[in-house]
Design goal:
Blueprint lengths: L5 E7 L3 E9 L5 E10 L3 E2 L2 E2 L2 H19 L5 E6 L5 E10 L9 H12 L7 E13 L2 E4 L9 E12 H13 L3 E7 H9 L2 H6 L1 E6 L4 E7 L2 E8 L3 H12 L3 H11 L12 E4 L8 E4 H26 L12 E4 L8 H9 L3 E3 L20 H23 L9 H4 L23 H16 L1
Parallel strand pairs: 1-6, 6-11, 12-17, 17-18
Antiparallel strand pairs: 1-2, 2-3, 4-5, 7-10, 8-9, 8-10, 12-13, 13-14, 15-16
Helix pairs in contact: 1-3, 4-10, 6-7, 6-8, 8-9
Length: 449
């Protein structure tokens, strides 16, 4: 790319595909240079189900972003969601060969690589391994073990797992659109970066991102990600229900939802009626807003209860795990009228709508701060972060020598797809876990071609 500090996020959603170009300004805020948006045709519930259509939609979004910003996009950071994502807690340890030396990056890398070798179900791949807290020689609750002495290093990990084929399909679409893949990030993590403040993450907060096809959830406590989940329905099922319940076409149902929809049936008077033109020469239909919001309410309650179940599974009821900052709603589905009140009513937790303006430059277009763009903004932030790390590394590492750590040579092949040998990592300044994974994935995709 001509400009060094420019980064691109690509949010491949069920309803829309967004390509967003951004860079950091001198105040460290994110400046959006261009956005392209296209209707997403080949994606269902966050999973690609039509490669050709998805490629066309990606190209359309990318071209639009390029023409707005007069920049050429060469590589992107992509978000991944979908019903195949699951997460698990895992703890692992290593015994250090030399306890007289302090713990350094290589020990942590070794520990993380060990987690990557966990045996997954067939066809699954580990997407992220996120260390939560460490123990050194039994001393618990250590946030940063580097520089400490100790013989046994343990950690609790949050491991995110997804389907190999779905991940490869996304990679395939991006490559066939003529773009490089700079990295892949779990969408709820990207959205969380864009809309949550550090204080909220410390206090404990659940982010619920209601998209078109999926509802993503990320829970933070003490500044650490504690739980992630993808619930396989979102705004589209609401539209679908309105379509069925009122016998109208999808386009009309979507408009009804956006213009007149409310999640709280009590808000509408009995005599409020909307008339919808009939199809070609048929009588117009009359729909009461009360009925409309009853249909919406039933579905929304289902989505929220599902998300609340995940919050309970995490253990929100325990005093120590209480989420003090409550719930933050984002994504296109969070713009539904009276949704905040309904969520507070069902969960009894404080709720706010999350706008991705936390890190945006002051003069950004107001549209960019819409919850619709939370994931895209988060992906751009992620891409910029990756770049700044790479720049630092390039300065430090003149000639990286290829070394394969012993851990990787003895890889247990059951975790990896047979066509994907683990790439050897040049030993560099420590990479972020995301980047490492992106490197592995790139190799993985190249080999799979």
């Amino acid at each position: 790319m001509e400009n060094n500090n420019i980064a691109v996020g690509l949010d491949i959603g069920t309803t829309k595909i967004v390509a967003m170009i951004g860079r950091k300004n001198e105040y460290g805020k994110l400046e959006i240079l261009g956005v392209g948006k296209s209707k997403s045709l080949g994606v269902h519930r966050g999973v690609v189900n039509n490669i050709t259509q998805t490629i066309q939609s990606i190209q359309q979004a990318v071209q639009e972003a390029e023409s707005v910003s007069d920049l050429k996009i060469s590589e992107v950071v992509v978000g991944i969601a979908g019903q195949h994502i699951r997460s698990l807690q895992h703890s692992d340890y290593i015994t250090r060969s030399n306890a007289d030396e302090v713990i350094d990056d290589s020990d942590i890398d070794m520990l993380i690589n060990q987690v990557y070798k966990l045996v997954m179900l067939p066809g699954e791949e580990i997407i992220h391994v996120l260390p939560q807290e460490y123990k050194v020689d039994g001393q618990a609750e250590i946030k940063e073990p580097i520089g400490m002495y100790g013989g046994r290093l343990e950690a609790n990990f949050h491991v995110v797992v997804g389907q190999v084929s779905s991940i490869r399909n996304i990679g395939r679409c991006v490559k066939s659109s003529g773009l490089g893949l700079a990295g892949i990030t779990l969408e709820p993590l990207a959205s969380a970066n864009a809309v949550l403040s550090q204080e909220e993450k410390e206090a404990g907060v659940a982010l619920i991102d209601i998209g078109g096809g999926t509802t993503d959830l990320a829970i933070f406590k003490d500044g650490i990600i504690r739980h992630t989940a993808v619930i396989p329905f979102g705004g589209n099922v609401i539209t679908e229900d309105i379509k069925e319940g009122c016998s109208i076409i999808e386009k009309q149902a979507e408009l009804l939802k956006i213009k007149f929809g409310s999640a709280w049936p009590g808000e509408n008077k009995d005599n409020e009626i909307v008339s919808i033109p009939g199809l070609r020469g048929r009588e117009p239909k009359e729909i009461t807003l009360k009925n409309l919001s009853k249909i919406i309410h039933a579905r929304v309650v289902e989505i929220i209860e599902q998300a609340y179940l995940e919050i309970k599974n995490y253990g929100h009821e325990e005093q120590k795990k209480k989420l003090i900052a409550g719930i933050v709603l984002t994504g296109g589905g969070s713009q539904l009228n009276h949704l905040k009140q309904l969520v507070e009513y069902i969960t009894g937790m404080d709720t706010r709508i999350g706008y991705p303006n936390e890190h945006l430059a002051g003069d950004s277009d107001a549209d960019m701060a819409s919850p619709l763009y939370a994931t895209a903004v988060g992906l751009v932030m992620n891409a910029i972060e990756n770049q700044s790390k790479v720049v630092v590394e390039e300065e430090i590492v003149e000639s990286p020598t290829e070394t394969i750590s012993e851990v990787e040579t003895t890889t247990n092949d059951t975790t990896e797809h047979t066509s994907a040998p683990k790439p050897s990592e040049p030993k560099k300044e420590r990479k972020s876990i995301f980047e490492k994974w992106a490197d592995k994935l790139k190799d993985f995709l190249d080999n799979a071609e």
